[in-house]
Amino acid sequence: MPWFWAGLLLGGLALLTTVAGYDGLYGQDAYAHLNYAIDIQEFWRSGMPLGSYQWPRLYAFLGALWPWGDPRCWMQFLSMAGAALTLAMLIKILQRSLPEARWIPALTFAFVGLSPLLVRNSLSVMADAPALGVMTAGLWLGMQYQESGKPLKLLGAALLAGAAILLRYPVALALFFPVLSWLGSALRRRDLSGLSLFLPVMMVAALPQLLLPEAAGEGLSQPFQHQHFIQWTPANYFGRDFVQKDGHNVYPIFNLAAVLGIFWHPRYLGLGLLGVLGWFFRRNTSVKPMFWIACGAIVVNVLFLAGIPFQNPRFLLPILPFAAILLATSWNFGFQRLFPSRRMQQIAFLGILAVQVGLCLWSSKLPFAVSANEKMIAADLKAIPNQGQRLYELSFEAMLKARNVPLQEVNMWNGPLEAPRKGDLVLFNLKAFEDQFKGMWPMKNWEMLGQNHTLRVQKEWKEGWKLYVID
Questions:
Q1: Tens of pLDDT along 141-162?
Q2: Coil, strand, or helix at residue 455?
Q3: What is the pLDDT of residues 172-228, one digit of tens each?
Q4: Rg (CA), the chain
Q5: What crossing angle do the helices spanning 151-167 and 128-148 adopt, rounded to 10°?
Q6: Which of 464, 465, 434 is nearest to 447 (CA)?
Q7: For residue 336, what are the CA distances in angstroms to 163, 286, 339?
Q8: Quick one: which of 37, 187, 407, 424 could link to 63 by a disulfide (CB 3.0–4.6 Å)?
Q9: H-helix or E-strand spanning residue 138
Q10: pTM exceeding the 0.90 threshold for the entire prediction
């Protein structure tokens, strides 16, 4: 039964991307993952030096294993498969914990599989969903170890935990409390083989990170050098206005409320609010020890994420399975109490599916629209005869490379520009960047260009993007 729901989700995601014509490339991160996977392939073929890469390498490494050219479809499939694996493993965990809860598989499909956050992040060439799937599979093996005491289950959980972290570093936060719980069980059982081999097995997943040539600023210490880690402070819990090297960002609500949105915002659990209502009917905390593991994981993540000077909904994705574990009992009980007859339950479930699908389609509109706009920009730029002119831009460096735009790119982020030549091009979005980068190099360079040169608009696209020619 878990794999039926997982297959249904995977098929739905594939259908959605096909109908939308979405190739999984949206925003800087997705393009960077694809570019690095292609760079690894080229490194294997010719020894071409690898460029810098600010993410763990396992996802790009797996993408590079695709033997038939451009790996973007393969990497997009890995992302969708990660979402399906998350759903299957979570249903297994909840069925083992709540064997009498008949509606748990269906409700987990509705609230987690069709979570707008999970669906949106599983459609793109991103490591988030694969990391989540591998992490949830590790939770399943860890749970089996705590029940059976078999060392191979513990070592399997260790390998999957290491792989999840090397797919996406923030997963380490979500796994901190579960790993402590597994090791605590091993200590109580005096499982010396499991304890002694746990860390070495976990580190096996780091082999792609360690075997590929290391560029400056990379390596396993990289996440501790990130500005979010360095600038963490409890003072950010109630902040919503932050200035970083990435610009000035103002958010609608303060950090702590945003992080706790995992329990109340429709983009996360959707109608998972039913779980909260279930607590009013019956305060049941029978999912043990997974219930307490989930509580610990959520607390650790909330306390850390609320302290960084940045808000991004996908940072909460690793908490999603733990939130489901926390609410599963009351999901089931609240659903049966609100809809007592079988006929009412079937109608209510179809209604929930309709709402969740609608929320997923609404949430996916942004990446679909941005990707379509980026394709249009890339196509128009490729149509410009390459006469050695430079293209000054911001935030599109990875996109231009991935979509094979041959113009010489100069990033306006890196510092003062060299004197431009007549005929050079400027790709800029003043509406988007004016406030965010006020007083920083992108706006300083833009102002310098406008003061010292005539900028003629050659092309306009949606969302404020314009191409200028320097006359």
A1: 999 999 999 999 999 999 999 9
A2: strand
A3: 999 999 999 999 999 999 999 999 999 999 999 988 888 888 754 455 556 656 667
A4: 24
A5: 160
A6: 434
A7: 38, 17, 5
A8: 37
A9: helix 128-148
A10: yes
